[in-house]
Amino acid sequence: MNVVELKPEATAGLVKVEKLGPVLRLEMNNPPANVLSIAMMETLKAELDAAREDNSIRAVIIASATPGQLFSAGHDLKELTLHRADEDRGRAFFARTMKLCSELMQTIVHLPVPVLAEVDGLATAAGCQLVASCDLAFCTDTSTFCTPGVNIGLFCSTPMVALSRNVQRKQAMEMLLTGETIDASTAREFGLINRIMPRQYLGQVVMKYADVIASKSPLTVKIGKEAFYRQAEMPLDDAYEYTASVMVENMLARDAEEGMNAFIAKRTPEWTGE
């Protein structure tokens, strides 16, 4: 397979980037489906990698630039199908796509600041995986979700990783085995979504959560997010041993000292990130 390097002009405009104080807003802008093509995934990952190096960013929002339509339809099936004409029937390109997708989802999980999904529309397949990979997820009351790969002979195995870590097993298997679309209320019952609201309030509510998170000690949030995902994969005894050591180190941080002193003195803490 010939690997085509994407030029900057090829990805320009795929993601709208806006800095709102300490909050970074990334809007997927590839209508009508916001497919997670190679270009889209590389662009999103590049923006998230840049956010990691920017100490002024305290939270990230991932949304669609076309609210009310598709949040994301997942992988670009046309792009994938095109490479079936390759000598290897597409194997190398398929592997590249899945590797990049896995890297993108893990970038979200390992980012030192929380990532919030703002969903208004359909999130399907890898688009649903993107929602599940975010730390928090909010949607409109008309949003829908599905992992429909089974309907086209392609089980949603990589979306399953994020889905099964956010949704109870039987609910996750229901989505994966039937491929049926669930509504916003069901998504919240399953544990995929935090809050549901009418469209006119979605951006306001998500920004409120982002601002609240951004007001906390960045060091404390970083420590807590990393510990949350690490302990979730451990046996109970190991999880308690690990988190106890995390809390000891956290208590020795200057921000923890400042926070406790401020609480006792009934004043607002001044965070330094140390």
Automatic annotation (TrEMBL):
Swiss-Prot/TrEMBL GO biological process terms: fatty acid metabolic process
Keyword field: Fatty acid metabolism, Lipid metabolism, Transit peptide
Keyword set includes Lipid metabolism: yes
Pfam family, one: ECH_1
Transmembrane segment boundaries: none
Record GO terms (molecular function): hydro-lyase activity
Repeat recorded as keyword: no
Family to which the UniProt record says this protein belongs: Belongs to the enoyl-CoA hydratase/isomerase family.
Free-text function comment from the UniProt entry: May play a role in fatty acid biosynthesis and insulin sensitivity.
Name of protein: Enoyl-CoA hydratase domain-containing protein 3, mitochondrial
